[in-house]
Amino acid sequence: MNTLNTIVLTEGSQPPKKPPTEELSQIWKSLIKFGTKLKLERKCYLFRAGEHNKHVYISLSGYLMLTKNKTLLDIVEPGQSLGAALLNSGNSIQTYPVSAMSIDQSEVLQLSAEVAFDLMNSNPLVNEYFIRQFKDRMSYLQICRSIESLPVTNRVAFFLLQKKSLLKNTTITRKMIAQAVNTTQETVIRTLANFEKQKIIEYAGRKIILIDSSHLEKLCL
Amino acid sequence: MNTLNTIVLTEGSQPPKKPPTEELSQIWKSLIKFGTKLKLERKCYLFRAGEHNKHVYISLSGYLMLTKNKTLLDIVEPGQSLGAALLNSGNSIQTYPVSAMSIDQSEVLQLSAEVAFDLMNSNPLVNEYFIRQFKDRMSYLQICRSIESLPVTNRVAFFLLQKKSLLKNTTITRKMIAQAVNTTQETVIRTLANFEKQKIIEYAGRKIILIDSSHLEKLCL
């Protein structure tokens, strides 16, 4: 299946002059010089695991899920990169190790992996940006692995705390939480109901609001 | 606790002229110019999670475990880096996110994180090496997370296949496998006994030998 069927691409669309985050301000000009803006509808694949491609992306707006098999590996926020595994792949054909799908309507900056890698080697700030991306994602994955053996309540608490800012800006479904902490949707529903009863969280429509973060933090020690 | 108590440091020891792997041959001279060789006895901490430090390491010989809490995150082989999370940390005080402990007697090249980061920015091949290190470790972590929900037999099969070359060169204990695939030692013992009965593996002393890799591969699909 081709991703081009699933993304809504505004061809040749100019990327915004303003970077999505302050962190990118010093390198934004260099990045958008070679980049194109893509628009994605809700629940569209930007790429799928195993696909051949030569692009690296930076999220401009909206949130995207990184998944592998049925596991939600991470949620990408504006300013973060996607597909950086293709950087530095030389001329060998490389495939994405994970899939990326938009949670809501999203925009991304698309860069050729080759161009992005040249920029890394010629501009220390671009290099620093991508290295920070690798480090942050690796660190999150390491923490996720290290809490695998904790009870599900603690894993849900960890996820809610780690993704605090996301809860405010997008709808994290129970299914997503289940896929992130490796449990069933039913268990997540039960866990969240308990948190609600204990006044640790509350709901505003479908959005989860953290009321007592310190309680969640204690569950993560 | 200070790591200096646990590592046996041969002060000012010259790193070897020959790199541990072919991959490092082109950048070895630049790396050893600024590096020192450290020797570690069996089961010694090179660093512990949360420690302040400013060093990045490359394994020269022997195998080291990366752990966090009680999870075995990965096993580092000669030629691979450790502590690269401290690269690019500027002047801010950074701590190691994980611990590193030698499995058997080991040697590592110690580099100041600052010097290593300067080398990355001035030498594209050094940059490429460290990016590859990040990518490889991230990719392994992503796969580990994505198989979390598989039965323990499949997770053990995955671990044995991923760490095939290690099995030949060092002793992987049942405890290590248990910590890597998030199960009990008893379950690992039972799983390996089943594999032995089915002639998928056999033992040479304490070493596990893979006889029928294709069977293990089927368990990883």
Question: What can you see in these coordinates?
Answer:
The structure is a homodimer of 221-residue chains. The first copy, chain A, is of the alpha+beta class and 221 residues long. Chain A has two domains: 143 residues, Jelly Rolls; 72 residues, Arc Repressor Mutant, subunit A (Orthogonal Bundle). Chain A contains eight helices and ten strands. In chain A, the strands form three sheets. Chain A has a four-stranded antiparallel β-sheet with strand order 1-8-3-6. In chain A, a hairpin with a 2-residue loop joins strand 4 and strand 5. In chain A, helix 6 crosses helix 7. Chain A is elongated, with a radius of gyration of 18 Å. The N terminus of chain A is likely disordered. Chains A and B meet through helix 3 of A and helix 3 of B.
**Structural class of the helix and strand makeup of chain A?**
alpha+beta
Q: What is the second-level CATH architecture of the largest domain in chain A?
A: Sandwich
SSE string of chain A? HEEEEEEEEHHHHHHEEH
This entry's quaternary arrangement is homodimer
Main sheet properties of chain A: 4 strands, antiparallel
The named CATH superfamily of the largest domain in chain A: Jelly Rolls
Large-scale geometry of chain A: elongated
How many domains comprise the coordinates of chain A?
A: 2
Q: How many DSSP H or I helices of chain A?
A: 8
Helix content of chain A: 25-40%
Low-pLDDT segments of chain A: 1-5
- Total number of beta strands of chain A: 10
